Predict the 3D structure of the following.
Amino acid sequence: MLTTNRVAAVTLGALAVVVLFESRKLPLGSLHNPGPAYMPVLLALALLVFAILVGAYGGASRGLGAVGWSEWRHAAAILGTCAFAAIALERLGYRLTMAIALGFLIGVIERQGVFVTLTLAVALAAGSYLLFDTLLRVPLPRGPFGL
Amino acid sequence: MTETVHNLLLGFSVALSPPVLLYAFVGCVVGTIVGVLPGVGPLAGISLLLPATFGLDATKAIVMLAGIYYGAMYGGSTTSILMRIPGEAASVMTCIDGYAMARKGRAGAALAIAAVGSYVAGTVSVVALMFLAPPLASFALRFGPPEYFALLILGLLVLAYMSSGSMVKALAMATLGLLLGMIGIDQMTGYFRFAYGVVELGDGIGVVPVAVGLFGLSEILATAGQETPPAVIKPTLRELLPSRQEWKDANWPIWRGTVLGFLIGIIPGSAHIISSFVSYAVERRLARRPEEFGQGAVAGVAGPESANNSATSGAFVPMLALGVPSGPIPAVMLAAMMVHGVSPGPLLIKQQPELFWGFIASMYVGNVVLLILNLPLVGVFVNLLRVPYPLLYPGILVFCILGVYAVNSSVVDVWIMLVMGLVGYLLRKLEFEPAPIVLGVILAPMIEMALRQSLAMSDGQYAIFLTRPIATTLLAVGVLLVLLSFKSLITHGFDWRERMAMAEKGDEL
């Protein structure tokens, strides 16, 4: 049966194998002079052992079907918004990026009215910029037309 | 003793200077707001607000961040008592009797007892921190690389043992964190490891994007699509005074919680969470009428609240004296100190006495500020919870992105936060605890350096860890913990960690 622990064990095991594979590009060194691959290999082996142990006792955990995923659409939209912010932040500038991101989340995802959406999006984007960039002097990126 | 008093006076001269006092106050207010808001615990809160301290000198920055930390611990109790929503994990136990008291019309009394208990615990534990940290730092000067390696490994093992649920799962998460900490330039040879041409990864993965992703963003991902929180019980100022009997019932639990919390706080692990759980269990066991627990027992609020605040100070002992964080929150505090050019460890107290003693004194001041602030302003803080979550979480998300970006002015950190947010969300679904990952990330370079230096010292002999008494003792304690974790497999019963996991999920609530 596909349980949460077994899924986790397979994922962690696969990650450990990837690390072991990637570590071959680095010198392993010797016992008295360990190289840059020494610790990653040691840790990947430890992760592999833990993955096997988690998988071995995996039968007692919940089935994957029993895990609730009802909020996945919201989660995907939020992750998409974060990805947009990462791409746009240094291109469009902080204020414009955040205003668009907030407008999307509040107006499109949460289906709030146009007035509420616009007010909150502009106020939060401009307010946080004012607080951090202007008052606290944390430099935030500017976009076209100095926005 | 005279030297300690003299140093403390020096500390108060720093802490009571108007600018430092102002930042302590701001930290406490912001921390309380962070604690009140569901989904933004102290860990994510400190990480998010780290950039706001960049323009400050080290003392003000550390004082403000510490204010956020213990402000968040205070704030977490408010939502637990009034809404049965723990603002952060350490307040889970307060939900049980705090909310029951609120439903009986004693919300104000529960809040007052939580605030006074937190104040007493905070103040007493700072005294203990003051006396314990300097001798521990002197002792740590005897530590070489093998001792540090053993201490760091013990720290991870204790964190894994103390985590609710499976120790193997916690160790897997700690190993994952250590592996993440391997990304970047190797300190000893200069090789780029697992960076795949991304120059920004040369300095490694920062603890801030990891912490904000795993704790802040993942919480938003998991809760944004769910129903809005239940209605808030709002007490009036007149209701805030507990009765004489309630004070009497709270007295001993506050003192017991203080001592327990501080002792547990020193031990590595999610101390403030564990301490509140242990305190609740102790109070229930010692109670004359244990059947009252769950129905609004005063001791069920006073004990855990005192314990989790006392543990907050306790957790600073190994961080300040040894430079070794005992959990994810001190790990972020350590990272914050390093950003400001402060290296906690045995030499901090001698080299930067103003900072160390100013920090200690500011904790006294912070506790007074919180006591004055929290009770009269409870209504104001609670109003934050009236903002519908669909409008609240986009704002929190903006601060997540802003906070993470501002640390290094790098969008790579925003991507790391995004990935870690997804990882945290999936780990939550798969019932894994993300806290050991954060500790692993920050400890990875220290552990690797200590191991490689130890092996270089011993010409490749691992026996060096078994020939030095301090290192051997520390590792032996670690092995003992691993063996203890197998106990429940043999006895086929629930051990205390499994019971804690059930309580956190609400099975006993």
